[in-house]
Automatic annotation (TrEMBL):
Key words, A-Z: FAD, Flavoprotein
Entry annotated with the keyword Flavoprotein: yes
Gene Ontology MF annotations: acyl-CoA dehydrogenase activity; flavin adenine dinucleotide binding
Domain Acyl-CoA dehydrogenase/oxidase N-terminal as annotated: residue spans: 31-141
Domain of life of the source: Bacteria
GO terms classed as biological process: fatty acid beta-oxidation
SUPFAM superfamilies linked: Acyl-CoA dehydrogenase C-terminal domain-like (SSF47203), Acyl-CoA dehydrogenase NM domain-like (SSF56645)
InterPro entries: ACX4-like, Acyl-CoA_DH_CS, Acyl-CoA_Oxase/DH_mid-dom, Acyl-CoA_Oxase/DH_mid-dom_sf, AcylCo_DH-like_C, AcylCo_DH/oxidase_C, AcylCoA_DH/ox_N, AcylCoA_DH/ox_N_sf
Domain Acyl-CoA dehydrogenase/oxidase C-terminal stretches: 260-399
Cofactor: FAD
Species whose genome carries this gene: Trinickia violacea
Family label: Belongs to the acyl-CoA dehydrogenase family.
Protein name: Acyl-CoA dehydrogenase
Every Acyl-CoA oxidase/dehydrogenase middle domain range: 145-239
Length: 406
């Protein structure tokens, strides 16, 4: 965004437009997938970008954009059948990047719905459950969330869930709380993971938020990151869920939950790469227009050094996430590879967005210039879907043969 310093700037020469896809990764998509990608880019640039700062500042979700997202027909991207659009993992990732390049919260909203909620049903649901839930979710007539994290249980979810499930005939009674659940304050369907008190195994349940007695959600306030995503604290008090809504096909232990998280964890790698791209492009545009000492600051060596380092971080992350997509499409992606991708890209995102804020000086902390939003959002990406340290311990166990977990 031009500043008052640039009002009299002459158009002496045409400067390169900011482009964070320096090695043309989008060109690796086939023609049909590039057309889908372009539709997403058009929507994000024409409808999301002009209003997103306002919603970020107000800690609100732009519900008026939902019809436009429904028209994209991308709910359940990457899932085959059941009204879902399918698509390669490369397309899934590049769509995530494109959304996050404009706003990481929108990418998170979409990822929670399509990959965590729908992905749980697609991976662990029965055929009847898939037929019932996936088509309306693909049309985004029903929006989902994913309830794993708890107020006192984050990294220790594998063995420490406190939310319990007790079977009583054809009904399961759930008690407990979930916290930091994206989309929860307003969505229709929650995938809830709870510990079966009889066999001590983690099981998954489909809960219809608005019609299930004993199920309530409180919106979390005062966040400083991913403010457009509405996070909630879910409380279940003797919440009765029919056996028909238990994910019976492939959710018998936490290992099955981890299978869902494997794909979404490396999706965060795409998001954090897109977050870097957005910050870089805004910083570059600002540097081209901001005058100091009679010249655009983009002409200064120190600014160019920062911009080049930012682009190098972005490109390194793009290379990593593209390779994870290839492995995922081949059915070869491991938990360790997904963990390394998530850890590396989110740590580089923190570095890149801090350099972008540095380029803007004091203006870097104003939402008006966009970079401050990316700067804050990168902090949430760094921690959610598994902290940086936990991801490194997953990798460390794989490469050393020793577990350093408590």
């Amino acid at each position: 965004m031009p500043t008052t310093d640039t009002a009299s700037k002459s158009a002496a020469k045409q400067l390169p437009a900011p482009n964070s896809d320096f090695y043309h990764f989008v060109d690796t998509l086939n023609a049909d997938e590039r057309a889908i990608f372009q539709r997403v880019r058009t929507l994000m640039e024409s409808k999301v970008a002009p209003i997103i700062n306002k919603y970020w500042v107000e800690d609100a979700f732009p519900f008026e954009l939902l019809p436009a997202f429904m028209e994209l027909n991308l709910g359940g991207l990457g899932i085959q059948g059941y009204g879902c659009p399918g698509g390669s993992q490369l397309l899934v990732g590049l769509i995530g990047i494109e959304m996050a390049r404009i706003d990481a919260s929108i990418a998170t909203f979409f990822g929670v719905h399509s990959f965590l909620a729908m992905g749980s049903i697609a991976r662990a649901g029965s055929e009847e459950q898939k037929q019932k839930w996936l088509p309306p979710m693909a049309r985004m007539e029903k929006i989902g969330c994913f309830g794993l994290t708890e107020p006192l249980v984050g990294s220790g979810a594998a063995g420490g869930l406190t939310t319990t499930a007790k079977r009583e005939g054809d009904t399961w009674v759930l008690n407990g709380q979930k916290r930091w659940i994206g989309n929860a304050p307003w969505c229709d369907i929650s995938i809830i993971w709870a510990r079966d008190v009889d066999d001590n195994q983690v099981k998954g349940f489909i809960i219809e938020n608005k019609t299930t007695p004993g199920f309530s959600v409180e919106k979390m306030e005062n966040k400083i990151a991913l403010k457009v995503v509405q996070n909630g604290q879910i409380t279940m008090k003797d919440c009765q869920v029919p056996e028909a809504n238990r994910l019976a096909s492939g959710a018998q232990s936490f290992r099955d939950t981890a299978g869902v998280l494997r794909g979404t964890r490396y999706y965060v790698g795409w998001e954090s790469t897109g977050c870097q791209m957005g910050a870089y492009e805004h910083a570059l545009k600002y540097a081209q227009e901001r005058l100091q000492f009679g010249k655009p600051i983009a002409s200064f060596q120190l600014i160019q050094d920062l911009l080049a380092k930012m682009l190098a971080n972005i490109t390194a992350c793009q290379c990593m996430v593209v390779r994870t997509a290839q492995l995922a499409d081949e059915g070869k992606l491991t938990d360790q590879q997904a963990a390394l991708s998530k850890a590396f890209t989110t740590s580089k995102a923190r570095e890149t967005v801090s350099w972008a804020r540095e380029v803007l000086g004091g203006n870097g902390i104003l939402a008006d210039h966009n970079v401050g939003r990316f700067f804050a959002d990168a902090e949430a990406l760094y921690s959610y879907e598994g902290t940086y340290q936990m991801q490194n311990l997953i990798v460390g166990k794989a490469i050393t043969g020793f577990s350093a977990f408590i």
